[in-house]
Amino acid sequence: MKSSDIMMIRAASDEVEINRNELAQRLGTARGYSSELIESCREKLMKVISYKCVYIRIPVQKPQENVCDFGFMRVGSRYLYNNLRDCDEAFAMALTSGIAVDRELAKLRVISQAEHFVTDALASAAIDSFADYAVSKMSNGLQCVPRFSPGYGDFSLEFQKPFLERLNGHGLLGITLSSAYLMTPVKSITAIMGIKK
Amino acid sequence: MKKITELIKEQRVYFDGGTGTLLQSMGLPAGQSPELWNITEPEKIISLHNMYFDAGAHIVKTNTFGVNREKFENYAELIRAGINCAKTAAKGRENAYVAYDMGPTGQLLEPLGQLRFEDAVSIFADNVKVAAESGADLILIETMNDSYETKAAVLAAKENSDLPVFVTNVFDASGKLMTGADPAAMTAMLEGLRVDAVGMNCSLGPDLMLEIMEQFAKYSSLPVIVNPNAGLPEVRDGETVYNIGAEEFSDYMVQLTQRGATILGGCCGTTPEFIAKTIEKTRDLPYRVPEKKNLTVVSSYTHAVFVDEDPVLIGERINPTGKPKLREALRSGDLNYILNEAIKQTDAGCHILDVNVGLPEINETEMMKKCVAAIQSVSDLPLQIDSTKPDTLEAAMRMYNGKPLVNSVNGTEESMKNVLPLVAKYGGGLIALTIDEKGIPETAKGRAEVAEMIIRRAAEYGIDKKEIIVDPLALTISSNPESAKVTLDAVRMIRKLGVKTSLGISNISFGLPQRELITSTFYANALQTGLNCAIMNPFSAAMMNVYYAYRALNMLDSGCTDYIGYASASADNSTKTNAPKTEENLHTSIVKGLKESAAQKTEELIKDTAPLDIINGHIIPALNEIGTAFEQKKAYLPQLLMSADAASAAFEVVKRNIPAEQSDKSKAIVLATVQGDIHDIGKNIVKVLMESYGFTVYDLGRDVPPEKIRDCALEHNCKLVGLSALMTTTVPAMAETIKLLNETDRSIRVIVGGAVLNQEYADMIGADHYGPDAMDSVRYAEAFYNA
After folding, report:
1. CB burial string A35-68: b at 16+ within 10 A, e below
2. How many contacts does A have with B, using Cβ atoms within 8 A?
3. What is the spatial distance between Cα B650 and Cα B599, in angstroms, rounded to a whole number?
4. Residue B631 has pLDDT above 50, yes or no
5. pLDDT tens profile B677-712
6. Domains of chain B (ranges plus CATH)?
7. CA distance readout (Å), B580 to B577, B583, B646
8. Domain-embedded: residue A1
9. Less packed terminus of chain A by CB within 10 Å, N or C?
């Protein structure tokens, strides 16, 4: 029976290696720098993180210059248009590392700013690394352009709403939007990734 | 026709299945809300309901899942039309019921989200009013993936209709809701709120629900609903399909029935065929009425705590009686202190935390609400709501996420009249004190009699005695020599009444030296007598020793695993404290970021050094050293922050030793992440550095409206404000805040910072200073106050 076209990818916390460059950049340290603090935060974070990704594969139409039509939303954005220049198909994806990460951060905010800062950086690098992991699974050999998220350049954050509705981000991942279109769980990503012709 | 609440106690009852797929096959365009068809294509919706009734379903869900006032202006019309469609299909059929289907709002509630609890209740209430007027037979609250939103929906249903309420939640493969609750926690909360049936729907196929069903069977006294999907979606020949067909689905439904589910149906991907096959295969299986479980249980938003033979520890640290620091924190509204106590008690191994904020000079209800919300954002333990004021109890029980423990009712007419209705409405374990109009009976028998009377009165409110935990009141042996004996005799007698017991253990030694000796020995005696709960100090090693040893000795700790873990951790700690003192001093402790060492060294210094000399002679120079290293890129931000944490710990010690009237509030700053922005890393870094340099920081948090920032600056007469924003989209909110501050008081200075800002931007929005990093902000603030 034909049904929803939304696919899901999950990963256990140890299946995703946190990108070291990404982490170093967020921590403001040299690449490969580590410390007892960073490792103990990493260990605690890995216990609560829960990676999930949903995605769909959709046609991209370009009815006019600087406009992309994905069927469920029509986006006026020069950056996105350029990003998808060589594509007439794309993956639309939403990913999260789960609400338990928000809870861990809320707790650390009270007890230690150092741990809070480090864990926040780790969690940001982790969801980015999971995005790389998920992308390699879904693209499965297809040539893709770099992923592009609402909020980048002139791709307005307001598109988070139709995006998450189409992907059932609330039902499947528990993602909700604030009035300023920010996502909770905070370590969540939405993105379009064009498939090269 | 029978009432649905009667039918579910007599026989297996069947729900309908999925709608989305079927409506799409009838021509519903992808992406269009199916609910609109209630008005535009009612005959199609009616025919869908008819298909399910014809397949044998007793209950159809109205096509109203996503309707609420936030999403549809004409929500009332859509709900009315949806209910009419279902009623039309049900007309003339025997035992055919219409469930008004109410799904989640799609927003996340505070504290992690933005939607306020009472606003959620109000959104649902508007729906329920329409559904009740339109003649639905029951309310089905479904596909809820958050316990707090579920509670809001149930309260709305109960407060605005007399209809039966069924609730199904979405569990994932690990058996938890998206926000963490397991079946035991959901069952505890929902039974407390007196719904009529509980269960699960969507997300998983019936195969993956088998294990979760076992959990429900173990904990639920109510009929359990199971409405699974047709498996999980997968790609076959380029098409996405659900992977379980009607035949296989119904086989699993047989297994779910055998595990105790009594209300069966389907969710996404299921069709009338799935329901017909399920009915065919389960109809003749023996039906068992759900068995009543005699469990005394409270819950949080993640898990349940059972009060039984395994002793329960209730942390007593959040109670101002005899705790001057907590009193001061309550008076000044310092939630951070309270949250730290909550986290420390959680880490120390408590199962439940007592929360008492009663001080005559503060608004207890408001403070209780603030504390409950804040504590629930940092600790996942169930809370014991502790107040003598019924208003305070009610406010907290209502907004509590889970099923609380309520402390307390007593045997006076007034107390029972006030507290019992609250437990009947909101649910809760209930501590019952054996005291009545005549006071605390002197004998054990007298106390047991008061307990018996409370149990009887509670039953009149429909409160089962399994909800009651009697506290026969341990009084100090220093003035009541017989107290320990009488109390323990009372515990023994009260157990025979079939209720659980609790004691505030520490009272026993009041007024005596070396209290821990008496308290912990009494605790051991009480446990041996059968005491279930102790309100106690989890930081007392003597008490924890008794707890772990008792469990190991009484076969409550399989393989003595917990005991061994505890014993080796305590051994580690004692070696640490006995280890030769390191060469660290306060200065090096701060530079190296050693928080505990910094606090300890300060304690040593404070004995013979003036507080200000510690700050200016030790803390600030150490911070300057690491700060300079950071500025020269010889140290990284994590190191700087560890030093700041250590300096703050040292500062805390100093502050405690400065009499309140002498504390220096002249160096102060208001900090906030501006409205619309929830990124607070940068702001928090500034905060901890400011605090470590001795500034009083009024931290307003994230997403703060301009008016609130102005009001805070005015209230504290603070002339320095720091604003943070990470996103370009929230810089206008920053500009607006600066404008408002300028209009209010030209002498207020504003520092701005955040990833999107630079000097040019800062100038454009009228900021007085742009802080590229936290150290710079501190330097500016110091200069500002030194000028």
Report:
1. bebbeebbebbeebbbbbbbbbbbebeeeeeeeb
2. 146
3. 5
4. yes
5. 877 777 888 887 888 788 888 999 888 999 999 999
6. 4-282 (3.20.20.330), 312-572 (3.20.20.20), 580-663 (1.10.1240.10), 664-787 (3.40.50.280)
7. 8, 9, 21
8. no
9. C
Identify the CATH number of the domain in which residue A31 sits.
3.40.109.40
B contacts of A100 (beta carbons < 8 Å) = 180
Binary contact (B107, A6; C-beta < 8 A):
no
Could you give the CA distance from residue B685 to residue A117 in angstroms, rounded to a whole number? 8
Number of domains in chain A: 1
Which among A99, A103, A170 is the nearest to B106, CB-wise?
A170
Residue range A81-99, pLDDT digits in tens? 999 999 999 999 999 999 9
pLDDT at position B638: 87
Placement of tokens 């600056």 in the chain: B713
Tokens of A50: 């829960």
CB-CB under 8 Å, B112 with A184: yes
Q: Which of A7, A118, A173 is the closest to B233 by Cβ?
A: A7
Contact A91, A138 (CB under 8 A): yes
User: Residue B575's pLDDT band (boundaries 50, 70, 90)?
Assistant: low
Higher confidence at residue A151 or residue B191?
B191
Phi, psi of B674 (to 5 degrees): -70, 170
Collect all residues of chain A within an 8 Å Cβ-Cβ radius of residue B727.
Answer: 151, 180
The reply to whether residue B240 touches residue A3, judged by beta carbons under 8 angstroms, is: yes
- Kindly report the backbone phi and psi dihedral angles of residue B662, in degrees, each rounded to the nearest multiple of 5, phi listed first: -95, -5
CB contact under 8 A, B106 and A109: no
∠ CA B388-B391-B395 to the nearest 5 degrees?
115
Q: Which residues of A touch B377 (CB under 8 A)?
A: 103, 106-107
On the question of pLDDT at A31 being above 90, the answer is no
How close A63 comes to chain B (CA, Å)? 20
Read off the amino acid at residue B354: D
Among residues B138, B264, B137, the alpha carbon closest in space to that of B201 is found at B264
Residue B289 region by backbone torsions, left for phi larger than 0, else alpha for psi between -120 and 50, else beta:
beta
Is position A67 within any domain? yes
Among the partner residues B106, B239, B637, nearest to A117 by beta-carbon distance: B637
Confidence band of B542 (pLDDT split at 50, 70, 90): very high
Q: With beta carbons less than 8 A apart as the criterion, state whether A194 and A84 touch.
A: yes
C-alpha dihedral, B82 to B83 to B89 to B95, nearest 10°:
150
User: Is A3 close to B233, i.e. CB distance below 8 A?
Assistant: yes
Query: What is the chain A residue with the closest CA to B246?
Result: A1
Name chain B contacts of A106, Cβ cutoff 8 Å.
Answer: 111-112, 377-378
What's the domain range around A167?
A: 7-196
